[in-house]
Design a protein that fits this description.
The structure holds two protein chains of two kinds. Chain A is α/β, with parallel strands linked by helices. Chain A is built from ten helices and six strands. By secondary structure, chain B is an alpha+beta fold. Chain B has helices at 9-24, 32-44, 55-79, 90-113, 119-130, 141-150, 153-164, 172-196, 218-227, 230-249, 252-281, 284-291, 297-312, 317-329, 336-344, 397-402, 406-413, 415-476, 481-506, 509-514, 516-525, 542-563, 598-608; strands at residues 350-354, 361-362, 368-369, 379-385, 388-395, 531-534, 568-575, 578-585, 612-616, 623-630. The chains are: A alpha/beta, B alpha+beta.
Chain lengths: 220, 632
C-alpha cells in the first residue's frame, strides 16, 4: 500500500468535532486530508486550490442546515468533473440519493452519516468513489427494495437474486459483489443475467449505467 | 261601552244593558216584564250559536244567563226573607246597581275585545259566584247555610281573575300555584267552617242554626275565626309577586292594561285589612267609615280598575305592530326572547335556534336547549324560512288556542331579528368550539413534548448510558476490549438511528426542501402497504404543505393500524383555491372518529388554517378521507 499514492481528500462539515474526528480517521487509514471546510464557499476554495481527488461533504451545512451538501456536490461536479464526491447524509431519502447520482454516477456517493462510525465502511466508500465507482447507502437501497408493491417482477426473484440486486443498487461491480458474497465471479454474472431478464432490463445496462437502471427500476 | 265597529255587537250589548238595568230597577224588586223578555230571548238563542262568530248573539246569550242568575238570586230573599235581610234603601240599592253595571261592562268589554280569550269566562264566573251572597238573606235555613258556606269562594274567583288578567290564562307555575292555593284554602275553609260553626255573629241576637254544623264547637269556631286571618297574609304576597312578574314581562301597551289593576290591588288590600282591624279591634275611626254610607266605595275600586284595563285592551294583532316598531328601534342581541315574550304575553316563552352543527338547539348564548318531551303544557312552534329550520319557539299552548295565527304572525314579523340572533348564537357556538379547539391544540402540543421526552429517555439516552458502561468495561478488561467496543459501536449506531427517526417524525426536512410530492412519496416508501401518490409538483405555502403532510401521515398510520387495507392512494388536486387531499383505501371501513385523539388533532390542525376534514367510511367498503385546505 505504501508505494500507492495516497488518495487526496477534502472534508466539509460544520461540526468541528466531527470534522476533526473524520480527518483523523481518514488519515489513520492512509488518506491524505488536504483541507477541511466548515461551509460550502470555503470548501469550493479548497477544491479550487488543492484539487483533491475526493470531496467528503456533510449534507447539512450553513446557512439553512438542510441539503446544502447536495448542492455543493453538484457545483463541484460541474466545475471539476474529475472530482469524486461522497455526500454524508442524516437523511434516508431515496430521492436525494437517486437525484445525486442521476446525471453522472461515476465517482459519486450517498452515504448515511451513521456509517462513518464503522471506519472500514467509510474508507471503502471513499476508495470506491475515488476509483470512479458509485456508492448508495445500503439503508437507502433497503428502503427502495422493501417498498411495498402491487404485482411486480421483483416477486419472481429469489432471496439470493434480491441480495445481488441490492448490491448492484449500492453501486457494487460484479467482482466486488463476488468478493462480498465469497462466490465465483461467473456465478454472479449468471445471477445478474437472470435478474435482468426477469426484470426485463436490457443488457445495455452495463458499467455505470447499470446502477442507474437498477435504481430507476426500484424507484418505479 | 263597545267600540267595535262589528255590526251585531250593539244590539246584543244594548239588549243586555237594558235587561240588566230593568232587572235591577233601583230595588231588589224584579221587573217581571224583563224576566218575560229573557224567557222569550233565551230559547231564541240556540246552543250552537253560543260559541259562534257572532259576538252580538253571544253577548246577548251570556247576559241573558247572567240575568236569570241575578233574578233568581234576588228573588229568593224577597219571597222568603230572613230576619237579617238588610234595610232596602236607595243608597245601598243604587250602590249595588252601579257595582253590577260596572261588572257587566267589564264582561261585555272583554267579550268584545277578546272574544277568543277565556277572560270573559272568568269575569262571568266571578259575577255569578258573587250572586251567592244574596242567599244569606233567604229564610230557608238550608239555602241560607249554602249561601253562607259558599260565599268565600267568590274571593278565589276574584284572585283568579286578577292573576289571569288580561290574557285569561294562568301562565307559569307561580300563577297556577297562587290561584290553586286560594281555591284550596277558601273551599277548604268553607267546608271546615260549615262543619264547626253553629251561628254567625251577623245574626245576633236571634240566630239560625247552621244546618251543616255536624261538629259544632263554639270554642273551636271562635279560634278558627281568629286563625282565619293568617292564610290570606301568607297567600296575598303571591298575588303581588305574580302581578309584578307580569309587569316585568309586559310591553308598554300591556302595562297600560295592567296599570289600573296594579294600582287597585294595593288599595283594596289595604282597605280590606283596615276593615278587618276596625271590626275586630273596635277602632272607632276605622269602623265608623265602614258603617257609613261611604262603606261600599272600596268595593268599587276593583271592578273600575278592571273596566279601565279592559277598555285599554287592544286586539292581539296590534301586538305584532308593537313588535315591528320595537324591531325598528333595534333589539340588542340576546334581547329577542324578552321582546317575543312581551309580544306574545307569555313570560315562560323560550327561543331556541338550530345548532350550527345541525344537531339539537341552542339558546342565544350558545347553550344547548332541550325541547319538551311531552307537548302537554308546552307547545313548540317551528320557525322556518324557505324550508330551512331556523329554530323553535317553546310557549304556552294557550296563546295559539286564544288567537290562532298569532304565533306565526309574531314570528314572521320577527324573522329578520330571529335570523340575526340565530347567526349571533351560531357565532357564539363556533367561538365556543374555537376555544375548545385551542385548548386541545395546546394539550396536543404538551402531549407531543411528553412523547419526545419519553422517546429520548427510553431510546437514545438508555443506549448512551449502556455505551458508557461498555466503554468502562472495555477499559478494565483489555483482553476482551475488541468485542466490547464492537458492541458499544452497535449500541451507538442504534441510538443514532433512533434519534434520526425521532427527528424525522418531528418534521421531515424533505418537506421543506423538496415539497409536498417528494415528502408524501417518501412517506409512501415507508408505508408497509402499496401507496399510489398523485400530488402536484408545485410548492405551496409552508403551513399548507405541513398541514397536508401531517394529514396524510396520520391517515396512513391509521390505515396501516386499523384498516387492513391492501391498496392506498393519495391524490391531491386543486379546486377553487383549495388543496384537496384525498386518501382512499380498500380496507374494512367503519372508521370510528370518536376513538383516539389523532383525527381530533387533525381537525384542529385543519381548522387552524380554515380547512375541513371529511371522512367517509362505510362498513366493509374502504375509507375515503378528504382534507380541504385553502391555500390562496
Amino acid at each position: 500500500m505504501s508505494e500507492v499514492a495516497r488518495i487526496r481528500v477534502a472534508l466539509a462539515d460544520d461540526a468541528a468535532l466531527l470534522r476533526e474526528s473524520l480527518a483523523a480517521a481518514l488519515a489513520a487509514r492512509s488518506f491524505d486530508v488536504v483541507g477541511q471546510a466548515a461551509d460550502v464557499p470555503e470548501l469550493l476554495k479548497i477544491v479550487e486550490r488543492e484539487r483533491p481527488e475526493v470531496v467528503v461533504v456533510d449534507v447539512r451545512m450553513p446557512p439553512t442546515h438542510t441539503t446544502e451538501g447536495l448542492e455543493a456536490a453538484r457545483e463541484i461536479r460541474a466545475r471539476h468533473p474529475g472530482t469524486a464526491v461522497l455526500v454524508l447524509s442524516q437523511y434516508i431519502e431515496t430521492q436525494y440519493a437517486v437525484d445525486l447520482v442521476r446525471d453522472d454516477p461515476a465517482g459519486i456517493g450517498y452515504l448515511l452519516k451513521d456509517r462513518v462510525a464503522r471506519l472500514s465502511d467509510l474508507a471503502d466508500a471513499v476508495r470506491r468513489v475515488a476509483s470512479g465507482g458509485t456508492v448508495i447507502d445500503p439503508e437507502v437501497v433497503a428502503l427502495l427494495l422493501g417498498r411495498p408493491r402491487r404485482h411486480s417482477p421483483l416477486d419472481e426473484l429469489t432471496t439470493r437474486e434480491r441480495q445481488i440486486l441490492g448490491l448492484m443498487a449500492e453501486g457494487l461491480s460484479n467482482p466486488a459483489i463476488a468478493d462480498r458474497l465469497h462466490v465465483e465471479l461467473k456465478t454472479i454474472e449468471g445471477h445478474v443475467g437472470i435478474i435482468f431478464s426477469k426484470l426485463g432490463l436490457g443488457p445495455s445496462a452495463e458499467g455505470h449505467r447499470r446502477v442507474l437502471a437498477v435504481l430507476a427500476y426500484l424507484r418505479r | 261601552v263597545a267600540a267595535d265597529p262589528d255590526s251585531g255587537v250593539y244590539p246584543g250589548v244594548i239588549a243586555c244593558m237594558a235587561m240588566t238595568g230593568l232587572a235591577r230597577d233601583g230595588s231588589l224588586g224584579v221587573n217581571w216584564a224583563a224576566v218575560d223578555m229573557t224567557a222569550k230571548a233565551a230559547p231564541a238563542a240556540p246552543i250552537e250559536t253560543f260559541e259562534s262568530n257572532r259576538p252580538g248573539m253571544r253577548i246577548a246569550v251570556v247576559c241573558a244567563i247572567y240575568l236569570v242568575i241575578v233574578v233568581v238570586a234576588n228573588t229568593l230573599p224577597l219571597v222568603t226573607p230572613n230576619t237579617f235581610m238588610p234595610q232596602v234603601t236607595l243608597v245601598n240599592q243604587g250602590y249595588q246597581l252601579v257595582l253590577w253595571l260596572i261588572w257587566l261592562a267589564v264582561l261585555v268589554e272583554s267579550m268584545v275585545r277578546q272574544p277568543s280569550s277565556p277572560l270573559w269566562k272568568l269575569v262571568f264566573a266571578y259575577m255569578a259566584l258573587a250572586q251567592l251572597w244574596t242567599l244569606r238573606y233567604v229564610g230557608n235555613p238550608v239555602v241560607w247555610s249554602i249561601g253562607w258556606a259558599t260565599y268565600p269562594i267568590q274571593i278565589a274567583a276574584l284572585v283568579h281573575l286578577i292573576v289571569a288578567f288580561p290574557s285569561g290564562h294562568l301562565r307559569g307555575r307561580l300563577d297556577r300555584a297562587v290561584v290553586g292555593a286560594y281555591y284550596a284554602y277558601l273551599i277548604g275553609i268553607s267546608i271546615a267552617m260549615s262543619l264547626i260553626v253553629r251561628n254567625v255573629d251577623l245574626c245576633q241576637p236571634t240566630c239560625h242554626e247552621q244546618v251543616f254544623a255536624a261538629f259544632a264547637d263554639d270554642g273551636l269556631a271562635e279560634w278558627a275565626g281568629r286563625a282565619n286571618v293568617i292564610p290570606p297574609l301568607v297567600l296575598a304576597p303571591g298575588i303581588f309577586i305574580s302581578l309584578w312578574r307580569h309587569w316585568r314581562y309586559a310591553n308598554p301597551a300591556a302595562r297600560q292594561v295592567l296599570a289600573p289593576v296594579a294600582v287597585a290591588l294595593p288599595i283594596v288590600t289595604v282597605a280590606t285589612a283596615l276593615e278587618y282591624i276596625g271590626r275586630n279591634f273596635w277602632i272607632e275611626e276605622i269602623s265608623a267609615f265602614f258603617e257609613s254610607p261611604l262603606q261600599p266605595i272600596p268595593q268599587l275600586v276593583m271592578p273600575i280598575a278592571f273596566l279601565i284595563g279592559v277598555t285599554r285592551l287592544r286586539l292581539n294583532r296590534t301586538r305584532v305592530a308593537d313588535l315591528v316598531v320595537e324591531f325598528g328601534r333595534g333589539i340588542p342581541i340576546g334581547g329577542l326572547r324578552d321582546a317575543l315574550a312581551q309580544a306574545l304575553g307569555d313570560p315562560t316563552l323560550e327561543l331556541a335556534f338550530t345548532a350550527p352543527s345541525g344537531d339539537g338547539n341552542v339558546d342565544a348564548s350558545g347553550r344547548a336547549v332541550e325541547l319538551p318531551a311531552d307537548t302537554v303544557g308546552r307547545a313548540v312552534t317551528p320557525l322556518e324560512w324557505d324550508g330551512e329550520l331556523l329554530g323553535v319557539l317553546i310557549h304556552d299552548p294557550a296563546i295559539e288556542a286564544d288567537d290562532p295565527g298569532l304565533v306565526e304572525a309574531v314570528s314572521s314579523a320577527a324573522r329578520l331579528a330571529i335570523e340575526n340572533e340565530r347567526l349571533a348564537a351560531q357565532v357564539r357556538a363556533q367561538l365556543e368550539e374555537v376555544r375548545a379547539s385551542r385548548a386541545r391544540i395546546v394539550e396536543a402540543g404538551d402531549t407531543e413534548r411528553r412523547r419526545i421526552e419519553r422517546d429520548l429517555h427510553d431510546g437514545a439516552q438508555q443506549r448512551l448510558v449502556a455505551l458508557a458502561l461498555r466503554l468502562q468495561l472495555a477499559k478494565e478488561t483489555a483482553a476482551g476490549a475488541a468485542s466490547l467496543l464492537d458492541e458499544a459501536t452497535a449500541e451507538v449506531q442504534t441510538a443514532i438511528g433512533e434519534v434520526r427517526d425521532l427527528a424525522r417524525g418531528l418534521h421531515p426536512p424533505i418537506l421543506t426542501e423538496a415539497g409536498l410530492r417528494a415528502a408524501i412519496t417518501a412517506l409512501a416508501e415507508r408505508t408497509p402497504v402499496p401507496v399510489t401518490v398523485d400530488v402536484p409538483a408545485r410548492r405551496y405555502p409552508s403551513t399548507i404543505e405541513t398541514t397536508a403532510y401531517f394529514v396524510v401521515a396520520e391517515i396512513l398510520t391509521n390505515v396501516v393500524r386499523h384498516a387492513r387495507a391492501t391498496d392506498i392512494s393519495v391524490i391531491a388536486t386543486e379546486a377553487e383555491g383549495r388543496l384537496l387531499v384525498t386518501i382512499r383505501d380498500n380496507g374494512r371501513g367503519g372508521a370510528d372518529e370518536t376513538r383516539g385523539s389523532g383525527l381530533r388533532g387533525l381537525r384542529d390542525r385543519l381548522a387552524a388554517v380554515g380547512g375541513t376534514l371529511n371522512i367517509n367510511s362505510p362498513h366493509d367498503d374502504g375509507t375515503t378521507v378528504t382534507a380541504a385546505i385553502p391555500f390562496t
